[in-house]
Write a structure and sequence with these properties.
about 400 residues, alpha+beta, Serine Threonine Protein Phosphatase 5, Tetratricopeptide repeat, Jelly Rolls
């Protein structure tokens, strides 16, 4: 190329051009359709020079503007290229360039002008304009995309309705799980989750959802529809007596308070001298679990797995795992198992199996060790009381 193209020189394959020469060089290379070399010069320019190139390109003829668009695209100045494309009748291409530059709102508007509403909605959604995206998805009848937007807008119940229409039970359960306890439709959401889980064979999970709902919402606690649903689930699990007792209490107008795990945990002798703050910290470590009938909680001779505090249901204690093992005891709400394993290594001394479905608090040994490491005064009190109560507790489980 001649010196009139901008007076540029080449050293080691790099094009070096000063000031005004660089501007002229880019224009000349665009005319020669040498976009790669023009892009290299453009990349080496300062911000002010690149801005001037873009302004000049905007004033130039259509063919030259398209040439500059290609240069800017190759230089990865996607936003500059998009602005050059605006208003030139190629809105879809401009939308792509805006999208590549991260300007999702501008991309969406370009896609709308190009008659591509689905891509516009996706760009609005990507840019956080969820209501606008939802409006377009609704016009398109794109229910799954609508549901995803509704979840992001914290309208989980409305999303669940769409998933139900689509027959996507798993997605419906996930959406319903996002309904907050202060939502007027919280109880309805809990009932629907229970029905879906039960229909899939996850009755124990349904009971756990009910338990969580009751513990997190004053409205759910004692709600007649949830009481009825719990009775139904209990019957599904063969627990007719428990279901009948629950419905009898409701018919008599009695309020059946949910088992208070904190109260049960506080009543365990080795925690009897903990302060309110230490007791609350310990309670926060506990995890609520639902245990199916027949499940072994503690296996005789195996290492201890931590503490279980029974809140609902009952367990049976045997002398061992054998079919003819001696039955030692039946324990119900308020009973606790495995506390020895919290503070002492050693095998479990009895075999414990769930007689019914059991709802319990569980504190693992690992969590308890972290607790005593950070609660020195509580640890001293627990270990002192443990030594006083250990002998009597072992005898109670072994005779």
């Amino acid at each position: 190329m001649s010196e009139s193209a901008g007076g540029q020189g080449e050293q080691g394959g790099r094009i070096r051009t000063p000031g005004e020469g660089a501007l002229r060089a880019v224009r000349s290379l665009v005319e020669l359709e040498d976009a790669d070399r023009a892009a290299q010069i453009y990349e080496e320019m300062g911000d002010a020079q690149r801005e001037r190139i873009r302004r000049e390109a905007e004033q130039g003829p259509a063919k030259e503007r398209r040439g500059f668009v290609e240069v800017l695209r190759r230089a990865r100045d996607f936003l500059g290229a998009a602005k050059l494309m605006d208003g030139q009748g190629e809105d879809a291409t401009a939308g792509d360039l805006y999208f590549q530059s991260g300007k999702y709102m501008a991309a969406a508007e370009s896609y709308l002008r190009a008659g591509e509403p689905e891509r516009a909605a996706a760009a609005f959604e990507r840019g956080g304009a969820l209501e606008r995206a939802l409006t377009i998805y609704r016009e398109l009848g794109a229910r799954e995309a609508m549901a995803q937007c509704l979840v992001r807008l914290d309208r989980s119940f409305d999303a669940a309705v769409l998933y139900q229409e689509l027959g996507q039970a798993h997605a419906e359960v996930e959406a319903l799980g996002g309904v907050r306890p202060d939502d007027d439709r919280f109880v309805e959401a809990v009932l629907r989750i229970c029905q879906l889980l039960d229909a899939e064979g996850f009755t124990h999970r349904a009971l756990a959802v009910l338990a969580d709902a009751v513990s997190s919402s004053d409205v759910a606690r004692g709600h007649p529809d949830l009481v009825t649903e719990k009775a139904r689930l209990l019957r599904r699990m063969g627990m007719e007596a428990e279901a009948d007792a629950m419905l009898t209490r409701r018919a008599a107008g009695a309020t059946a308070p949910a088992a208070n795990g904190y109260r049960f945990l506080k009543a365990i002798p080795i925690f009897g001298e903990l302060s309110l703050e230490d007791m609350k910290d310990l309670y926060r470590l506990a995890r609520q679990v639902i245990i199916a009938p027949g499940t072994v909680l503690l296996e005789k001779g195996a290492p201890g797995v931590g503490l279980f505090v029974l809140m609902d249901g009952s367990v049976e204690v045997f002398s061992g795992p054998e079919d003819d093992a001696r039955h030692l005891n039946t324990l119900g709400p308020g009973a606790y198992l495995g506390e020895i394993s919290l503070v002492q290594d050693g095998p479990v001394s009895a075999h414990v199996r769930a007689r019914t479905s059991v709802r319990a608090l569980r504190i693992s040994r690992a969590d308890f060790e972290r607790y005593v490491d950070t609660h020195e005064a509580a640890a001293l009190r627990i270990y002192r009381l443990f030594t006083q109560n250990l002998a009597g507790r072992v005898r109670a489980l072994s005779t």
